[in-house]
Design a protein that fits this description.
The chain has two domains: 3-215, Spore Coat Polysaccharide Biosynthesis Protein SpsA, Chain A, CATH 3.90.550; 222-304, no CATH class. Strand 1, helix 1 (14-25) and strand 2 form a beta-alpha-beta unit. It has helices spanning 14-25, 46-56, 73-87, 106-117, 167-171, 188-198, 222-243, 247-270, 275-295, and strands at 3-10, 32-39, 63-67, 92-97, 100-102, 121-130, 152-154, 162-166, 203-215. The protein contains nine helices and nine strands. With 309 residues, it is an alpha/beta fold. The model has no long low-confidence stretch (mean pLDDT 95). Strands 1, 2, 3, 4, 5, 6, 7, 8 and 9 form a nine-stranded mixed sheet that branches.
């Protein structure tokens, strides 16, 4: 029986947190599970208070709640991992977002793929549920389209929206695990996985370990998709510049960004009759713009705004 800590950070999403805890309670598993919630709202602490009430009402699993006082996604994730290492003997840490909830077979599917592949970090499928379904233009948009892949080893993991780590994997990195410099910009997860990859950690995809993600109406819009593309480009380039010290490789990356920026309008014109491909070209253009901004030293705090409740 594996000991697993299911961890999530929350910030002013009471409905999302309630839905997440309800789904975790209904997991179909015989594993030894504990649950940890880090409330990143030190001012109101509504998530912390809610967890205390849920625990008092008789929750299926041991439920722990902490307050991550320093505002930021990286700070909240560090609080989760720090608690897992310092206060539990969990063999695995599974991490979800507070606008997500797992399928009933989620945990067992993750562990099955972990045993098969021997990977120390795994990502599962993310399926979207919309308040207002977007049109066909959104079929290829990051953050709106489903996130899926073939089960098995993969070269890289780019985000922490639905992941499982071994304890050994986390112990292999120095604190802080997630760079606080990415507090509200996002990209702390890409930087984290970049360091893991450099240490030789093996990654895998577990498509059967599906989680669902709520997409509010404010996100199911082209404007938000372009903003997300800009932010991803911005944070990806910041990660690249942090870890790449070779001048030649930096110049090559800049040339690639310039090429993508110049070709995106052409691609847009050629794909104009097909909404999904047309939007993909626009997103590529915005992503390139975000990378140029990062080269100039500009950061974009996407997560200063909260979507959904």
């Amino acid at each position: 029986m594996a000991k697993v800590l299911v961890a999530a950070a929350t910030y002013r999403r009471p409905k999302g947190l309630a839905r997440l805890l309800d789904a975790i309670e209904k997991l179909e598993t015989a594993e030894d599970v504990e649950v940890l919630i880090a409330d990143n709202d030190a001012e109101r602490s509504e998530g912390f208070t809610f967890c205390e009430a849920v625990r008092a009402g008789g929750y299926r699993w041991p439920l722990h709640a902490i307050i991550a006082c320093d505002r930021g996604i990286a700070q909240a994730r560090n609080a989760l991992v720090g608690y897992a290492i310092d206060h539990t003997d969990a063999e695995f840490v599974a991490m979800l977002d507070d606008d997500e909830w797992p399928s009933s077979g989620w945990l067992d599917a993750f562990l099955r793929v972990q045993r098969t592949t021997g990977a120390d970090a795994l990502h599962g499928a993310v399926l979207r549920e919309f308040d207002v379904p977007p049109g066909g233009w959104a079929a290829r948009c990051q953050g709106i389209a489903p996130l899926r892949d073939r089960t098995g080893p993969i070269a890289m993991i780019h985000g922490t929206s639905n992941v499982l780590f071994t304890r050994t994997c986390l112990l292999g990195l120095a604190r802080p695990w997630f760079d606080p410099g990415f507090a509200l910009t996002g990209g702390e997860d890409k930087e984290f996985f970049t360091r893991l990859k450099r240490k030789g950690v093996q990654f895998a995809w577990a498509d059967e370990a599906a989680a669902f993600a709520h997409v509010p109406a404010s996100r199911a819009k082209l404007g938000w998709a372009l903003t997300r593309a800009y932010r991803v480009g911005n944070s990806d380039m910041r990660v690249f510049l942090k870890h790449e010290r070779r001048v030649g490789m930096v110049l090559l990356e800049m040339a690639k960004v310039l090429g993508s920026f110049l070709l995106s309008p052409v691609q847009f014109a050629l794909t104009a009759p097909w909404p999904a491909w047309r939007t993909a070209a626009l997103c590529r253009l915005w992503r390139s713009a975000g990378k140029f901004a990062a080269i100039a030293g500009a950061h974009f705090n996407e997560y200063a705004t909260i979507h959904g409740g």
